[in-house]
Amino acid sequence: MHGKLPLKKAKRRVLPDFLSAFLPDFLPDSISRMLPGALTLAAGLVVWKAISLFFYPIFFPGPAVLFERMIAIYSDPASYVVVGQTLARIFEGFVLSMLIGTALGLVMGLKRGIEIFFDSWIMVLLTFPAVCWAFLSVLWFGLSETAPIFTIVLIVFPYVAMNIWAGTKAVEKDLLLMGRVYKADRSLMLRKVLIPQLMPYIFSSLRISLSLSWKIALVAEAFGVGSGVGQQLINWFQNTRVDMMLAWGVSFMIIMVLIDLLIFRTWARRTFAWRPEFAT
Predict the structure, then answer these.
(1) Domain residue ranges in the chain
(2) Which of 83, 102, 120, 273 has the most CB atoms around it within 10 Å of its CB?
(3) Is 189 left (phi over 0), alpha (psi -120 to 50) or beta?
(4) What is the pLDDT of residue 88?
């Protein structure tokens, strides 16, 4: 009774009833889980293609035309240098944002006085327009590598701090009291009590930070750097080539999605392997 769920029952917990009713029992569960996304993607491509028929390809390319433009971009070896420059800036800003945000969120969750002091400042940073930071970075640092990284950090780390702060406040206080009773030092409490309980919040912060960092990096590059994917977008914008803008933007989005799937989701799946696969 407490063994593995029957396949059909498992599928019904993944798919809507009207879809699971049409699936054969022998269909693998992995395919059942991918089916809703595949159907949504197929429907989106059909709608996209239908709309593109009413426009010139350079203004609204269809899926096939966009794919051809992407192939043309990555047939040029120089494109990989452009992508590498942007990825390096994203990585630097991402790492700094995670380190600063995690440290600040932890301290805010543990120290009431620091929480009161930084609470309002975090909200100010969260509500300040991202484009304004990009402009200010250019004015302060000029056309340099510092401008996009500075912009990423200022915009992303408050989200990380808020997430880790909320996670720290949700830590079971009984475990902290038990650690104090057994005279555990701060290092041991951090490694064995706080960090394990904060892992869900850390992983959500990682994924939020990545999704924000690459978007901000492209905006910052468009205004404050003479190279990178963002600069390619602004160059093609000036030439009114929507097809090439989409080719660069969509292809880079695919790269970031692959990073999330292959690194962060795989890492999270292994870290939380003890969790049940389906929510009850």
Answers:
(1) 86-225
(2) 102
(3) alpha
(4) 92
For residue 17, CA distances in Å to 20, 27, 123, 175 come to 5, 16, 42, 42
Q: CB within 8 A of 188, min separation 6: which ones?
A: 179
Tokens of 102: 């995690």
- Rounded Cα distance, 159 and 123, in Å: 10
Q: State the alpha helices, DSSP H only, in 128-145.
A: 130-141
Q: What is the pLDDT of residues 172-187, one digit of tens each?
A: 777 777 777 766 667 7
The pLDDT value given to residue 43: 86
- Distance (Å, rounded) from C-alpha 271 to C-alpha 150? 31
Q: Tell me the three state secondary structure of residue 170.
A: coil
Query: Hey, CA dihedral for 31, 37, 40, 42, is it positive or negative?
Result: negative
* DSSP H or E segment with residue 68: helix 63-74
What does the pLDDT look like over 134-170, one tens digit per residue?
A: 888 888 887 778 888 999 999 999 999 999 888 888 7
State the Cα–Cα distance between residues 5 and 53, nearest whole angstrom: 47
Cα angle 89, 245, 78; round to 5: 55
Q: For residues 200, 207, 126 and 106, what is the CA-based torsion angle, rounded to 10 degrees?
A: 30
pTM: 0.77
State how far the Cα of 151 lies from the Cα of 138, in Å rounded to an integer.
Answer: 9
CATH class belonging to 86-225: mainly alpha
Are the CB atoms for 137 and 150 separated by under 8 Å? yes
Residue 107: CB atoms within 10 A of its CB come to: 16
Number of C-beta neighbours around residue 109 at 10 A: 21
